[in-house]
Design brief:
174 residues; alpha+beta; two-stranded antiparallel sheet; 14% strand
Length: 174
């Protein structure tokens, strides 16, 4: 049996995993990163880190996403002011456009997406599903896509789909 880690060591491991991942991590991944082999201990240290961050940092946070994963991120209200400093976006420009189109037109069929966005849309849809930003229902032979709660939380969008569409229409008109 290896040596027991103290709380500071566990916290350092969790912080480094969340910071370097650049994507949401599941609790299972965080338990492994923490080296605790304990869900309860990992969650306790994680909650402590989240509290400390709220008291210390103004623009960054650790957020629990609807699927139960955790992400280290810039608070949404600061993203536009620092975009020019970001190295590599989470999504390619084409995938961003597809996601925007889904958000605006949802619910939308795979056939409509193919017509508007072209054959590259299939890879983009796969990527967006892996990130859990979109979901689909199968109706006959068609898939009908819409955004997820995780999409809304990740991008700092509050309210229902209609409120989202109104926000998007306002931005388009500017």
């Amino acid at each position: 049996m290896g040596k027991l880690l103290n709380e500071d060591q566990i916290a350092a491991r969790l912080e480094s995993a969340l910071y370097s991942a650049g994507r949401p991590l599941t609790i299972e991944e965080l338990i492994k990163a923490a080296g605790t082999e304990s869900r309860q201990k990992t969650l306790a240290v994680l909650e402590s880190i989240i509290k400390k961050m709220k008291n210390t940092f103004k623009a960054i946070e650790i957020v629990t996403l609807p699927d139960g994963s955790y992400v280290f991120q810039l608070k949404p209200e600061y993203s536009s002011s620092v975009r020019k400093y970001a190295s590599k976006p989470l999504l390619s420009r084409a995938t961003q456009k597809t996601l925007s189109y889904i958000a605006l037109e949802q619910p939308i069929s795979s056939k409509q997406l193919l017509e508007v966005r072209g054959s590259g849309v299939y890879g983009q849809l796969k990527e967006l599903r892996q990130l859990n930003f979109i979901e689909h229902q199968t109706v006959g032979r068609l898939r009908i896509y819409s955004t997820t709660e995780k999409f809304q939380k990740y991008f700092g969008i509050e309210g229902d789909v209609n409120a989202l569409k109104q926000k998007l229409f306002k931005k388009i008109r500017k």
